[in-house]
Design brief:
mainly alpha, 8 helices, 6% strand
């Protein structure tokens, strides 16, 4: 079996996470609009639980679909990061679903803290989220192959695809003389 590409540096993985959040803002706005049209929702707090379930489903389809198809979301393509199984193959459906559910550890602890503390100001919640992302991301320094905990638990890993691009650009090697 060929050696897998290295794990991308944490800085690049966090940059991809930020870019993903920007893209997901658009995805959730469009899907929220569709939900409102389909259900006749006229106020954001009306049918909030249904909207949250809908958005969760949309995000699951987005992530699992991209991970299963080519191992990369749009942000991962930009930052040249790919999700693979531990053996380097395409993630199985169960692995992708498990990774999606486990990856909520990025946002649920700060949201729960904000709820417990009854934070209404976005600044406190944003600071809590940023601190948690740095702590959770930083923990990968001590995990095997510097992967995130949700990757270890789901049997997946993130790999650097920059070498793939340079090999493709170089084309086939032709021996002369």
């Amino acid at each position: 079996m060929a050696a897998l590409p290295p794990t991308p540096p944490l800085r690049r993985r966090l940059a991809a996470l930020i870019y993903e959040a920007v893209l997901l803002f658009a995805v959730t706005m469009v899907s929220g609009f569709l939900y409102a049209v389909i259900t006749g929702q006229r106020h954001a707090l009306e049918g909030r639980s249904g909207l949250q379930a809908w958005e969760f489903l949309v995000l699951a389809v987005y992530f699992v679909g991209f991970w299963r198809k080519g191992g990369q979301t749009l942000a991962m393509q930009t930052w040249r990061i790919r999700l693979v199984s531990r053996d380097g193959s395409r993630p199985r459906l169960g692995q992708a679903l498990l990774r999606f559910v486990l990856s909520w550890v990025w946002v649920l602890p700060p949201l729960a803290l904000g709820r417990m503390m009854d934070w209404t100001a976005g600044g406190s919640a944003s600071l809590s989220l940023a601190a948690w992302v740095l702590v959770y991301g930083g923990l990968s320094r001590w995990l095997p192959d510097r992967q995130f905990a949700h990757d270890l638990l789901s049997g997946t890993r993130l790999v650097d695809t920059r070498e793939e691009g340079s090999r493709r650009a170089a084309g086939p090697q032709v021996k002369t003389g």
